[in-house]
From TrEMBL:
Keywords: Membrane, Transmembrane, Transmembrane helix
Pfam (any one): HEAT_2
Source organism, top-level taxon: Bacteria
Bilayer-spanning residue ranges: 93-120
Domain (Putative zinc-finger): residue spans on this chain: 3-36
Organism of origin: Paracidobacterium acidisoli
Protein name: Putative zinc-finger domain-containing protein
InterPro entries noted in UniProt: Anti_sigma_zinc_sf, ARM-like, ARM-type_fold, Znf_put
Gene3D superfamilies named in the record: Anti-sigma factor, zinc-finger domain (1.10.10.1320), Leucine-rich Repeat Variant (1.25.10.10)
Highest classification ranks of the organism: Bacteria, Pseudomonadati, Acidobacteriota, Terriglobia, Terriglobales
Length: 322
């Protein structure tokens, strides 16, 4: 056996990767080669020193956030997409890690993590674009208002009534009267949630749709849910985000995407009122492992001490993690 091959075998032997036959060949070579014996001793010393180092564990916050974002990215991608194939390869790679040396395992995990992160970014972009498309592309429900709607310019609700007056623009400003249950009124409100010029219109639209959902007035359709989720994630106004959060309450128990959006707000939203309200809304579904992970992360790491206390109180009421 040549020294080059012996040194390769020595590196593999440190991690127990040699067959019995290869180990026997290496021992025979080491018996007559002092240089390769010193090489093996150096590798063994390095491996022992590395084993004494503390292995850094990922924080619960990172694990929970990664799971939420990965699930959202997978849900947003079409069936059979390249992201799904990356995820399947990642699972297969994990199954093979026990048979790979430490350095190769680290390189594999690094490369896979880069691929997953790139896929997540692409998935989030597709997911948000698809939500906006669903909101704005729903076909008109009535022939009373033909043509494209340019914008919604104002909303007035009659006191103590389901009647609402919506001012909107096409080629010329127009107005329509009707109930909040009217499909055309709802379509205009959905358009109003996308108004980036007039924040009052956007806030009023989100508020009215959220109130309708909380009152149980036939809000099971996808466009309203998507509009509220989009407002919760992207609106710069904390009051609008809070209204959208409250409007999503009826969906929490049965809709995983809504639940993940609320957990994301609990982790990332800058307003403590929204994070506190998110804890209140997800408490009935604390049996979900994602909910428990996020609550645990928030109870340890949130900047607001009151939110940490509330999260801890909710966790203490869950027998599975006491």
């Amino acid at each position: 056996m040549k020294c080059e091959l012996a040194q390769e075998y020595a590196a593999l032997s440190v991690y127990g990767e040699l067959s019995d036959d290869q180990a026997h060949q290496l021992q025979q070579h080491l018996g007559g080669c002092e240089e390769c014996s010193r090489e093996l001793e150096a590798l063994q010393a390095l491996q022992k020193a590395m084993s004494l180092l503390t292995v850094a564990e990922p924080s619960p916050n990172l694990l929970a956030r990664t799971r939420i974002r990965l699930e959202e990215a997978l849900d947003a991608m079409p069936h059979g997409s390249w992201l799904l194939r990356v995820w399947q390869r990642f699972q297969q790679a994990l199954a093979r890690l026990s048979a790979v040396p430490v350095m190769a395992s680290a390189l594999l995990l690094f490369g896979t993590a880069v691929g997953i992160y790139a896929g997540y970014c692409a998935g989030v972009h597709v997911h948000d674009s698809e939500e906006a498309r669903l909101i704005l592309s729903a076909p008109p429900q009535s022939s009373d208002t033909p043509g494209l709607i340019a914008s919604v310019s104002g909303i007035v609700q009659q006191p103590d009534s389901e009647q609402v007056e919506v001012h909107y623009n096409r080629l010329v400003p127009e107005t329509i009267h009707g109930s909040l249950d009217d499909p055309q009124i709802r379509r205009l409100l959905l358009v109003g949630t996308q108004n980036r010029v007039n924040p009052d219109v956007r806030g009023d639209s989100v508020s009215l749709l959220a109130d309708e959902c909380r009152a149980g007035h036939q809000c099971s359709g996808g466009p309203i849910r998507n509009a509220l989720m989009l407002a919760l994630r992207t609106d710069r106004n904390a009051v609008v985000r809070l209204k959208a959060l409250n409007g999503l309450q009826p969906y929490i128990a049965d809709d995983m995407q809504v639940r993940d959006a609320i957990l994301e707000s609990l982790l990332n939203d800058s307003d403590p009122r929204i994070r506190t309200q998110a804890i209140t809304l997800i408490e009935p579904v604390e049996g979900d492992s994602s909910v428990r992970q996020v609550l645990h992360a928030v109870s340890l790491e949130d900047d607001n001490p009151q939110i940490r206390i509330v999260s801890r109180q909710v966790l203490d009421q869950i027998p599975q993690i006491q």
